[in-house]
Amino acid sequence: MKIDRQLIYQKFGGRCAYCGREITVKQMQVDHYWPQFLAHFQPNLDNNRIENLMPSCAKCNNHKHGMRPEIWRKELELQVTRLRKNTQFDRALRFGQLQITEKPVVFYFETFQPGNIADT
Fold first, then answer.
1. Better-predicted residue by pLDDT, 22 or 38
2. How big is the CA angle at 67 (ends 37 and 5), to the nearest 5 degrees?
3. What's the maximum distance between 2 C-alpha atoms anywhere in the chain?
4. Which stretches does DSSP call E strand in 44-100?
5. Distance, C-alpha 36 to centroid of its chain
6. Helix, strand, coil % (nearest 5) of the chain?
7. Which pTM does this prediction carry?
8. pLDDT score of 45
9. Three-class SS of residue 29?
10. How far, in whole angstroms, is CA 75 from its chain's centroid?
11. Residues forming a β-bridge with 56
């Protein structure tokens, strides 16, 4: 079955399903919500069905790689802790160039509401 890129692109109003960044069809990468390499755990499901395909920006798709979203969320939530160990980050923080706002990671697709003017 051929993947309909335009249909996937329109799922979240031309935005990355994960971070919400506006993307063009050309910039979009098609991500498998349930990773392809785990398809053997769900042999009765078509891994390329539209429900499993997500529009993604390159940065999110490359970082998520083959992780399930709940695992990737945990990975993302560790980012601030890891950055605090970086000397340049720490220096920028101490000089007031950065401000940390720790909050849970919420993916764009979890809050997207079709028809909301702000989402298009």
1. 22
2. 70
3. 55
4. 53-56
5. 16
6. 45, 10, 50
7. 0.83
8. 67
9. strand
10. 12
11. 29
